[in-house]
Amino acid sequence: MSALDLRGFLHGLPGVDQVGAQARAAMLASRSVKTTAKQWALDAAISMIDLTTLEGQDTPGKVRALCAKAKRPDPADPTAPMVAAVCVYPDLAHVAAADLKGSGVHVASVATAFPSGRTHLEVKLADVKYAVAAGADEVDMVIDRGAFLTGNYQHVYDEIAAVREACGGAHLKVILETGELVTLDNVRRASWLAMLAGADFIKTSTGKITPAATLPVTMVMLEAVRDFRETHGRQVGVKAAGGIRTAKDAIRYLVLVNETAGEDWLDPRWFRLGASSLLNDLLMQRTKLATGRYSGPDYFTLD
Amino acid sequence: MPKFEYAPAPESRAIVSLRESYGLFIGGEFTPGARAFKTISPATEEVLAEVTEADPADVDRAVSAARKAYEHTWAPMPGKERAKYLFRIARIVQEKARELAVLESLDNGKPIRESRDVDIPLVAAHFFYYAGWADKLDYAGYGAAPRPLGVAGQVIPWNFPLLMLAWKIAPALACGNTVVLKPAETTPLTALAFAEICQQADLPAGVVNIVTGAGETGRALVTHPGIDKVAFTGSTEVGKEIARACAPSRKKLTLELGGKAANIVFEDAPVDQAVEGIVNGIFFNQGHVCCAGSRLLVQESVYDQVLAALRRRLETLRLGDPLDKNTDVGAINSAAQLAKIRELSEAGEAEGAQRWSPPCDLPVKGFWFPPTVFTGVSQAHRIAREEIFGPVLSVLTFRTPAEAVEKANNTPYGLSAGVWTEKGSLSLWMASRLRAGVVWANTFNKFDPASPFGGYKESGYGREGGRHGLEAYLDV
Amino acid sequence: MSDVAMSGPARVTVRKTYKLYIGGAFPRSESGRSYLVADHKGAFLANAAMASRKDARDAVVAARKAFGDWSAATAYNRGQVLYRVAELLEGRRAQFVAEVRSAEGLSPRRAEALVDAAIDRWVWYAGWADKIAQVRGAANPVAGPYFNFSLPEPTGVVAVIAPQASSLLGFVSVVAPAVVSGNTVVALASERFPLPAVSLSEVLATSDVPGGVINVLTGRTAEIAPWLASHMDVNAIDLGGAPDSLADDLAVAAAENLKRVVRAGDQDWTLTPDLDRMLAYLETKTVWHPAGT
């Protein structure tokens, strides 16, 4: 597809009416998930978490603590499922890789000058190769929002395609940073752009700005992956990241997946939640369902 | 077995305290009458309560009580004091919101999510809005110090029982009238709960009177010589009867009747929201909506895409127990209504349209009809012309905006219409040409006490809501 | 030893401290000053905070910060919030009657009538929130294929120099009309009778009125009013409570950023108002949009 065709295609996608989209997301958020359904949803949500630490002050010690939590989230209950992945900066990916080896928990590394992405393509590709070499089997890249907002879709496409190639066997999540794209029309276009360029996952946010993930934004992305599979025959995953703090929030996202893209996406292979403090709230709710008592933060680890 | 089954999430019935039997609410008190009838839950067919059938003598008593209250108490009362009664009522409705929502779903069959999130909040809002007009009538655009009419006789339908009551009573009282209201025979309970709210608010006796009953009671009410104003919401057929009956008298009359609204989807519509709008337009409240978008007019160039998206969306609709918080589609209100829906659907098939429904488990007891879509419908088909008042959508196509307008207007009805397009000028061009009292652009079935609602042509006359809604209850 | 004294030595009362109300909080004046407020007989009532120009400046900042959300709230929501204020005022009716009596030296009957009028005035304005647009807006029949409509919108931050003589009813009557349509207010209470306005702030703080929507300053009119009148981030000003000698100068200062100026002055506050005070703080926005295929 030429640059002009690409632009024509993206601008020819159906628009999103913001008011209607927000109303639909709000209605889905009012679903009541109880008893056995809640039990399933809490475990599913835990198994979909990319347990994340992306701070300037991260150290190997911090990463190891997080990996321990990832493999055994509830110190008191071994039946609690493991999370899907641990997500770290590239220079600590080797620590995570060593700790998680053989556990089944994936190693995700951000790359491409996360979170801003404001540097030269060569630096971004070097960042990706470095992370993959260090043992990351998933790479979370950021798109060039500046290029997107100037309408330079071809540039954004080319970067994603180049990163996809640099990933090799690792799977690629493309972070749209929806908080900077602002409109739902932009989110729809960016989703399609990323998928056409080869994304394995499209991801809402870096978690470094607000707003991060929201229900309406995630809904539009779920509509995009649903329609893309329909027209292009390839299934792409969705990751909602940032701002998802409570079990209630997480369950709302699962309802959204269920009633938008459908249950084919209700699996850690196709849906992820990027979060850190969410895990303890899920564990607390899980414990309450099992024991009948409200739990407290002292009974879960802070890593 | 779906991966993610939500599990039953029933709203508790315990919050509602139903009496075994209810009298008529006349002159501030519940009084007995001669005959009784039962009201049932359409989801389970269980009897909920016994309700009194008001005979002409009862109606007469009610009108006298209303007249007395009008002359001695309500009309002489300054607007700012009337306002405070209406504000009290609004507040009590909010305080009892959950109870009223459960009661409405029990008696009507509509999903609790709708009673809770749409009906009851709008009831409170209507009383709040009109409370504020009671002492500002000078500014309403009807001249200085406009006077009320007197006693209003009001007959309301079963589809939004308490909301229709609010639409009638709030403006009437705000303007200084007193009322005698007859709720529908299948849904009397929230009106009777409202009577209790009037008592709690210390509303002066006789300002609001509730007479339960069926067609006979309604006839006695609207033809009563002591009534100055008749307000009716219901079928066009009965509306015409009332218009005929009122013609020789000097009673002021407003009618809010049936519809066969066109929901028009253009090729540049925001498709996902348009599909929501189609679903909302005809399956909200089981299609028991006068302004339902019962005719989908889809531009031929996007027919396949829209229909595919619609079918996919309909498969996620949840039909079942109205008291389950996850139910999207509840019960049909009565056996009689169910029979009508079936009859017209059979006619649709007989006339050659293709019928489709998503797979649905219909409960054994109660009155149920699955969401149904007819394609290959032409303007001449009965299902394109007659109001079905059920969850049945007829799909037609068009090529150009002018053709859409033509087809949309080609009906004796004129209550509402929907337009879906991303192009602002097209929305406005269509809105200016659609002969309908309410035009929804990129939305559907949105209501607000500040927004006037009513029909063109055989959908009735008069408007409810907004500043325009005051006219019906003022002597102007 | 019981705490409930049925007889015996007289109980010492816990006296209230009267502070400013800015941004939803109750600070003392940053200047640390207060001034003596006396009852109608000259006896000591309280030391009220004496606001400084910096307090006034902070209040304008708080009002500006609150304007975005308050003006974006639905009219229905604003009406509900203002009605709630009336509910709380009614609950404290006895307190306000006592305060108005002691301030203005009125008979119990007269004070009750004024407080009742203040509560009803608040209810009257609450009911306007979702109606102003219908009375003041319009669809305009322009000669072309355009949809054209005019809508009233709030002007922004309104400074109010509250009436000097009417400590509660007058105060309510100049503040409510500004906020009902979405403006936010910095009000300077009556210099001689500031206490009922401060008690009203307590009502505002415990109702659902967001912090900063209404800010109440107490102090010297001649000191504070000029700072509000000349403030470039204040969009409108009600000079009613300023003495005539001062009001002219204030109006001149207000002209620097073309504030909308209300100079209605003292009046019989018991009469139902007209719309002027609400309309003074409204801008009219007219929008054109073609209708075509």
Overview of the molecule:
The complex is a heterotrimer of chains A (303), B (476) and C (293). With 303 residues, chain A is α/β, with parallel strands linked by helices. Chain A has a single domain (3-299), classed as TIM Barrel, CATH 3.20.20. Chain A contains 13 helices and eight strands. In chain A, strands 1-2-3-4-5-6-7-8 form an eight-stranded parallel beta barrel, surrounded by eight helices. Chain B contains 14 helices and 18 strands. Chain B is 38% helix and 16% strand. Chain B folds into two domains: 21-257 and 456-473, Aldehyde Dehydrogenase, Chain A, domain 1; 262-441, Aldehyde Dehydrogenase, Chain A, domain 2, CATH 3.40.309.10. In chain B, helix 1 crosses helix 7 (215-222). Chain C has ten helices and ten strands. With 293 residues, chain C is an alpha/beta fold. Chain C has one domain: Aldehyde Dehydrogenase, Chain A, domain 1. Chains in contact: A-B, B-C. Chain B binds chain C through residues 80, 83-84, 87, 125, 128-129, 131-136, 139-141, 400-402, 424-426, 428-429, 431-432, 449-450, 466-467, and chain C through 75-76, 79-80, 83, 120, 123-124, 126-131, 134-135, 145, 147, 272, 275, 289-293.
CATH topology descriptor of chain C: Aldehyde Dehydrogenase, Chain A, domain 1
* Contiguous helical run count of chain C: 10
CATH level-1 class of the largest domain in chain B: Alpha Beta
The CATH architecture designation of the largest domain in chain B is 3-Layer(aba) Sandwich
- The poorly predicted ranges of chain B are none
The main β sheet of chain B shows up as: 7 strands, mixed
How many structurally independent domains of chain B? 2
CATH superfamily of chain C, by name, is Aldehyde Dehydrogenase, Chain A, domain 1
**CATH topology grouping of the largest domain in chain B:** Aldehyde Dehydrogenase, Chain A, domain 1
Main beta sheet of chain C: strand number and arrangement? 5 strands, parallel
Residues in helix, % of chain B: 25-40%
Rg calculated over all Cα atoms of chain B: 22 Å
- Total count of strands of chain C: 10
Placed side by side, the strands forming the largest sheet of chain C appear as: 7-6-5-8-9
| Helix content percent band of chain C | 40-55%
Number of strands of chain B: 18
Strand content of chain C: 15-25%
Q: Output the structural class of chain C.
A: alpha/beta
SSE class of chain B: alpha/beta
Q: Could you say how many structural domains of chain C there are in total?
A: 1
> What does the overall shape of chain B look like?
globular
